[in-house]
Amino acid sequence: MSVNKVQANKVPNALAIGIARGGLEVKQFMRQRESVVFTLAFPIMLLAIFGSVFTNELTDGVTFSQYFVAGMIASGLVNTGFQQLAIMIPVERDFGTLKRLRGTPMPASSYFIGKSIVVFVTMVIQIALLLIAGVLFFGVNLPTDPAKWFTFTWLIILGSAASTALGIAFSVIPKSGRGASAVVSPVVIILQFFSGVFFVFTDLPGWMQQVAAIFPLKWMTQGMRSVFLPDSFAAQEVAGTWETGRTFWIILAWLIAGLVISIKTFKWEQER
Questions:
Q1: Is residue 57 helix, strand or coil?
Q2: So where does this one cross the membrane (predicted)?
């Protein structure tokens, strides 16, 4: 075997670099105590507030807390993926972090993989804490049907990937890291209200429902309701069914769109 072949075999590929970058991203996130506490505790705080205020049953056997947990898990995908990345990437761009990374052999795809890993790890921890709090303090019932857990699994994986891709794609919109939060946060808050996270979706005005149906958060929340609510509640949905297949394809379409836009528009440096 030639020396060139030996050296080529030692060069890590984009996936290996991305996994290594992901491990570093997770370590950096865990060292930011304020960010860790806020990211992981905020959904539980909202559950405590809404679960204490709205104690009524929506239908027989379905409490508002049960409905709200489904919405908060879906919303967590958007908060942890889309919102966090759309804010943090412009900050890293301003600080020169991306400029320094550009000078390394790491391709943009590895950077994307690293971000996907930290989003997924954070999301798993957040969901686990939210479910534990819901079961212990608010009587949330976990599904017993393996098919529902299968739906839950692909929703988490696909939703996390889509939110990550869309967050990277949207990160080119803020002109600076300082103003990123002011640009991104209102978008997320509006989508949460429109998508049935804080209120029963079918109680919203028809025009809000139509606007929400364009975006993935509405389908993520509906998908999570199909996991945590009884099948009889599907009759309360707009279509009268859970539309699980449609949910899968719409989120997948947004994932593909996010990846394409990210690849075409991602910037290592802010244009002056």
A1: strand
A2: 36-55, 67-91, 112-140, 152-173, 180-201, 247-266
SS3 58: strand
Our count of domains for the chain comes to 1
Q: What is the pTM of this model?
A: 0.88
Tally: H helices and E strands in the chain: 12, 2
Task: Quote the CA–CA distance of 177 and 260 in Å, as a whole number.
Answer: 23
* CB contact at 8 A, 195 and 247: no
The tokens for 218 are 């509405």
DSSP of 94-152: HHTHHHHHHTSS--HHHHHHHHHHHHHHHHHHHHHHHHHHHHHHH-PPPP--HHHHHHH
Quote the CA–CA distance of 18 and 69 in Å, as a whole number.
Answer: 32
Residue 93 domain-assigned?
yes
Task: Report if residue 8 sits inside a domain.
Answer: no
Q: Sign of dihedral through CA atoms 259, 81, 271, 27?
A: negative
Distances (CA, A) of 208 to 102, 193, 238: 42, 9, 12
50 domain-assigned: yes
3-state SS class at 254: helix
